[in-house]
Design brief:
heterodimer; A: alpha+beta; Beta Polymerase, domain 2; Cytochrome-c3 Hydrogenase, chain B; 5-stranded mixed beta sheet; 3-stranded antiparallel beta sheet; 17% strand; globular; B: 172 residues; alpha/beta; Rossmann fold; 7 helices; binds iron/sulfur cluster; NiFe-Hase_large (chain A); NAD (chain A)
């Protein structure tokens, strides 16, 4: 079936008299947008699943003390459909989408913990996700009456009685890991059910770095929101800031100058290269190949020093502002950067050549941590996790936003094997693709302003969609009557990539967990919010 | 194998051969750091790092300390896996309430004398996140802090300077 047709078909089915969805124009940046009665929320998921669409996330929004709006985004390879419904705060019940789309399990529980939406038919019932013990089950931080400061709970106890699913049987034992890990990494808890060395089951428990980002966003102005977005997850600082800025600009109907868009893409591709280099090194390190690690870390360090020199920050934080970018590129910079790209390409040719066929490395990476194509599809994985398992979706190609709609793009990088090696190869090829893009962006850099002022539009609402280095990244922004932020929800690709880790580890040995984990590299901060 | 040796040879010793001004400063700092570590900690300082709600930025820069340019280990400073082996605790993030207890337990597991370094604006004073229903608002709200390294995130050089300050403090 042609997939554009599948979006149109679904729209047709939903707007048929039996269901009665109506088109609504409330959210800028996504078309079509349909409002449907709460009673048909479950049917929506069934129809979308039948149409072969991907679930790209669900989130809730407290419109006032009495009404909650719930929105779900569905993706076809070349377009999106946003569906929304409303429930009352007193009876906030909706059918769960998780039975059809297991990838939205945690997103639904996040909406449950923070806004009190009950998803009926959710396979885990009402088990909490983002909430540990910092606030009671009966209150919801994103409801209007809840103060940012909370209720001064005193010492917050550990979340000791979270119900982990256990396996029983002769010789089955449990390995608990975290939240504080052995290395310099973010906190999370992993519970392995193991027999001998083989992993029979892995359950992730995250939420440890929940900082209340969505609550912090409420009441901010545009500049404050973009600064916050840059800190949702530092490794995706540009991607989150861009998605938030794009959502704001769409909500306010602001046209960003062409030069600013080019500079944003330049920043985003630099972020991609830095992180891919870091991950390639990390994968090498996790199988004891320290040569690969040390080469990649020094390349990354040079890259970050150039970030500081030409863009003002090693991690490119706060380089984006609403309406454009914060700093222009010096006149001499393009030439020097193109030179640096050529130099990196030269070094990488030798390095990647080694990483590609070094027998000890192949022994560890090939056939390790296989994520099957169908599982990746069912979960809705994007980025290198999806691409490593044959899913080509890449926003820059399939739903290109400016400036990517004006660039010459090679086809997205895809590998079929789904193992750690495939995810590493995707990264290596994407580094080269980004270097090409960077050269192209510099060669075609338009003249003109680097920012325009954003005219805040009261009650505006917009959706930002950006291809971050981890994959498809979404941001929803809704403004209130004073044009301050009423709702900000950043949907990191890690929401869908983390569950993939629980699947791809099965049947592998415990000592291969670090490298499997690194090959997925889900963001903790990006999903704990 | 030859390709690897070739690549290594071509890469050379970056830690010494680069003459950017900040590398010169690093060298000075490094020598000073080495002296302090020798004098006060029996030639080695073990650090346990805990992310208590960071956005990950501070961790990226702490990781950078291990790369060939900074090579922190040459000064006798190492990151260790267990708090029981640690002389110092390096904490990032505004201490999310969900990490509060884990941080306290990690600190308790360290042998005395122990000292605590708060790295990054969030850890020093709450930074962008501050105190809220979800965050304690700074490391010293939960455990005593000896040294603060500001920055969002602090650069690797700032971190090394901060470690120097920590060593001086620990001697007091
Ligand atoms: S100080 Fe900055 S980089 Fe460090 S955790 Fe806080 S926001 Fe992130």
């Amino acid at each position: 079936m042609n997939v554009t047709d599948s979006l149109a078909d679904l729209q047709g089915l939903l707007t048929a008299p039996g269901i009665g969805a109506t088109a609504c124009a409330g959210v800028a940046g996504v078309e079509p947008c349909l409002a449907l009665p709460a009673a048909h929320w479950g049917l929506l998921a069934e129809l979308a699943a039948d149409a072969g669409l991907r679930h790209a996330g669900v989130w809730a929004d407290a419109l006032d003390a009495d009404r909650l709006r719930v929105q779900a985004l569905f993706a076809a390879p070349d377009g999106y459909l946003l569906a929304q419904t409303e429930v009352t705060s007193a009876h906030p019940e909706l059918a769960s989408h998780t039975p059809c789309f297991p990838g939205v399990d945690r997103l639904e529980r996040h909406a449950q913990d923070l806004l009190g939406v009950r998803f009926v038919g959710h396979p885990r019932g009402t088990v909490r996700w983002t909430r540990h013990q910092a606030w009671p089950e009966t209150v919801h931080p994103l409801r209007p009456g809840f103060p940012l400061a909370g209720k001064a709970p005193g010492r917050t106890p550990a979340d000791a009685d979270y119900p982990i699913v256990r396996l029983q049987g002769n010789g089955v034992f449990e390995v608990p890991v975290g939240p504080v890990h052995a290395g310099v990494i973010a906190p999370g808890h992993f519970r392995f059910q193991v027999m001998g060395e083989d992993v029979l089951r892995l359950e992730e428990r995250l939420g440890y770095v929940h900082k209340g980002i969505e609550k912090h966003a409420v009441g901010r102005d545009a500049a404050g929101l973009v600064r916050l977005a840059a800190r949702v997850a530092a490794d995706s600082s540009v991607a989150h800031a861009w998605a938030a800025a794009q959502a704001l600009e769409r909500a306010c109907g602001t046209e960003v100058p062409a030069r600013a868009l080019h500079l944003r893409a330049l920043l985003a591709e630099r972020e991609r290269v830095a992180n891919h280099l870091g991950d390639i090194g990390g994968i090498c390190n996790d199988v004891g190949f320290s040569f690969g690690q040390s080469q990649c870390t020094l390349l990354r360090e040079r890259w970050q020093r150039d970030n500081a020199t030409y863009f003002g920050h090693r991690l490119l934080m706060d380089t984006l502002v609403p309406g454009g970018v914060a700093q222009d590129l010096a006149a001499t910079a393009p030439e020097r950067l193109i030179h640096a790209h050529a130099e990196l390409r030269r070094v990488l040719r030798g390095l990647f050549d080694i990483l590609d066929d070094h027998p000890p490395l192949n022994d560890r990476l090939l056939t390790t941590g296989i994520l099957k194509h169908d599982t990746a599809r069912l979960l809705g994985c994007t980025g290198y996790v999806g691409k490593g398992s044959g899913l080509a979706h890449d926003l820059r190609h399939h739903a290109p936003y400016a400036p990517y709609d004006r660039l010459q793009l090679a086809a997205p990088v895809v590998e079929q094997e789904g193992d750690v090696a495939a995810r590493m190869r995707v990264r290596m090829r994407e580094v080269h693709a980004s270097l090409e893009l960077l050269d192209q962006l510099l060669a075609t850099l338009p003249e003109g302003a680097i920012a325009t002022s954003l005219m805040p539009r009261p009650e505006g609402c917009g959706l930002g969609l950006v291809e971050g280095w981890r994959g498809e990244l979404v941001a929803l922004v809704r403004l209130d009557a004073e044009a301050r932020v009423a709702r900000y929800f950043p949907r990191d690709p890690s929401w869908f990539n983390w569950p993939a880790l629980e699947h791809l580890i099965l049947g592998n040995i415990v000592p291969d967990f670090p490298v499997c984990n690194k090959s997925v590299n889900g963001s903790y901060s990006g999903v704990d919010l | 194998m030859f390709r690897i040796l070739n690549q290594v040879a071509r890469t050379g010793m970056l830690t010494e051969s680069v003459e950017r001004p900040d590398d010169a400063r690093l060298e000075r700092l490094g020598i000073e750091l080495r002296r302090q570590v020798d004098a006060r900690f029996g030639h080695s300082l073990m650090i346990r790092e805990v992310d208590a709600g960071s956005c990950g930025g501070c961790e990226i820069e702490i990781h950078a300390l291990a790369n060939a340019y900074y090579d922190l280990e040459r000064f006798g400073i190492r990151f260790c896996a267990s708090p029981r082996h640690a002389d110092a605790l390096l904490v990032t993030g505004p201490v999310s309430r969900h990490m509060e207890q884990a941080l306290r337990r990690t600190w308790r597991a360290m042998p005395a004398p122990k000292f605590v370094i708060a790295a990054g604006d969030c850890a020093c004073d709450g930074g962008e996140f501050g105190e809220s229903y979800a965050c304690c608002g700074a490391v010293d709200r939960v455990i005593p802090v000896d040294v603060r390294i500001p920055g969002c995130p602090p650069t690797p050089l700032c971190l090394i300077e901060g470690l120097l300050a920590a060593l001086a403090r620990a001697a007091d």
